[in-house]
Amino acid sequence: MDWIDIIIGILLIILGIFLIKIYRDLKKENKTGGLSFKLQTGGIGCIMIGIALIIRAF
After folding, report:
1. Which of 15, 20, 26, 50 could pair with 9 in a Cys bridge, judged by C-beta atoms 3.0 to 4.6 Å apart?
2. Is the dihedral of CA 3, 10, 46, 58 positive or negative?
3. Does the pLDDT at position 31 exceed 80?
4. Mean model confidence pLDDT for the chain
5. Closest CA to 36 of 19, 12, 17
6. What is the pTM of this model?
């Protein structure tokens, strides 16, 4: 087990959830634009990379 990969994976998952939450808040305020959609896509990517790092550590 590599603890650094697990810690980075957890941090990436938290960052991804945070980015998706920011996107939802921006959408509620009707401030939609190209950047807000990219925030959601980046959040999903961070979550996927975090999960992959955690799985690879085991």
Report:
1. 50
2. positive
3. no
4. 85
5. 19
6. 0.81
